[in-house]
């Protein structure tokens, strides 16, 4: 794919001056690696929904300052097993959590559409932000290990910012780092509410990356949808950039 025409179109209109991207399950196939890691810890991934619920609760407590990053994951693991009827001491919770983290890191991988899309975005000359609801420093390790760091001008981690999507604060901070107004920034992510709707409500252009396929019902107003990042360049050039030309 050539980049001369898209670069001209994007810069000529001035409609889009920056791009913001979610990380997990947008760029990184996090769910697959996380399910495998959970299965390694409990023998299967049948408790995935419970794990997600307990994780979301503990990440919320972390952002609220009720928990410290260094201990949150072990506390979360103890709470998870307690919900399954097993009372772990701290040492055993630590052992199981460390094993889970090892399997998780070994399974990190990018979706095949990620690098071509990032290469195209970088060729446009637009600044790019990563905006993640992750809770701690491991996210920066992951981004670096997968070769993503070179594509981003700024990386926003919820656990560092003190706010998580859909909170406007994290979007505001990303745009401030990039030096671009919210109204001239596109945010792309796999969660309809946290990413696309959250970005729209913050004043950005929200794009929902729905890798799962068609969805029943009417899409919320002001939200664009793609099923793969391979569709993002065409969306940016043909729809977003010319919306008010």
Automatic annotation (TrEMBL):
<keyword id="KW-0460">Magnesium</keyword>
<dbReference type="InterPro" id="IPR036412">
    <property type="entry name" value="HAD-like_sf"/>
</dbReference>
<dbReference type="GO" id="GO:0016787">
    <property type="term" value="F:hydrolase activity"/>
</dbReference>
<dbReference type="InterPro" id="IPR023214">
    <property type="entry name" value="HAD_sf"/>
</dbReference>
<dbReference type="InterPro" id="IPR006439">
    <property type="entry name" value="HAD-SF_hydro_IA"/>
</dbReference>
<keyword id="KW-0378">Hydrolase</keyword>
<dbReference type="GO" id="GO:0044281">
    <property type="term" value="P:small molecule metabolic process"/>
</dbReference>
<dbReference type="InterPro" id="IPR051400">
    <property type="entry name" value="HAD-like_hydrolase"/>
</dbReference>
<dbReference type="Pfam" id="PF00702">
    <property type="entry name" value="Hydrolase"/>
</dbReference>
<protein>
    <submittedName>
        <fullName>HAD family hydrolase</fullName>
    </submittedName>
</protein>
């Amino acid at each position: 794919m050539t980049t001369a025409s898209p670069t001209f179109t994007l810069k000529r209109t001035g409609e889009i001056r920056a791009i913001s991207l979610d990380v997990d399950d947008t760029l990184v196939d996090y769910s697959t690696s996380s399910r495998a890691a959970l299965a390694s810890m409990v023998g299967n991934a049948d408790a995935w929904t419970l794990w997600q619920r307990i994780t979301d609760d503990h990440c919320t407590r972390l952002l609220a300052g009720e928990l410290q990053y260094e201990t949150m994951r072990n506390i979360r693991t103890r709470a998870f097993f307690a919900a399954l009827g097993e009372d772990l001491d701290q040492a055993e919770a630590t052992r199981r959590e460390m094993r889970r983290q090892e399997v998780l890191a070994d399974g990190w991988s990018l979706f095949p559409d990620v690098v071509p899309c990032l290469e195209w975005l970088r060729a446009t000359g637009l600044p790019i932000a990563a905006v993640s609801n992750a809770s701690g420093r491991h996210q920066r390790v992951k981004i670096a290990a997968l070769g993503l760091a070179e594509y981003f001008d700024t990386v926003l981690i919820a656990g560092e910012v003190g706010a998580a999507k859909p909170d406007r604060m994290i979007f505001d901070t990303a745009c401030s780092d990039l030096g671009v107004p919210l109204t001239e920034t596109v945010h792309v992510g796999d969660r309809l509410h946290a990413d696309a709707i959250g970005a729209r409500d913050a004043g950005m252009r929200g794009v929902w990356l729905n890798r799962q396929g068609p969805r029943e019902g009417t899409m919320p107003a002001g939200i664009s949808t793609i099923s793969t990042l391979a569709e993002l360049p065409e969306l940016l050039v043909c729809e977003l950039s010319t919306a008010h030309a």
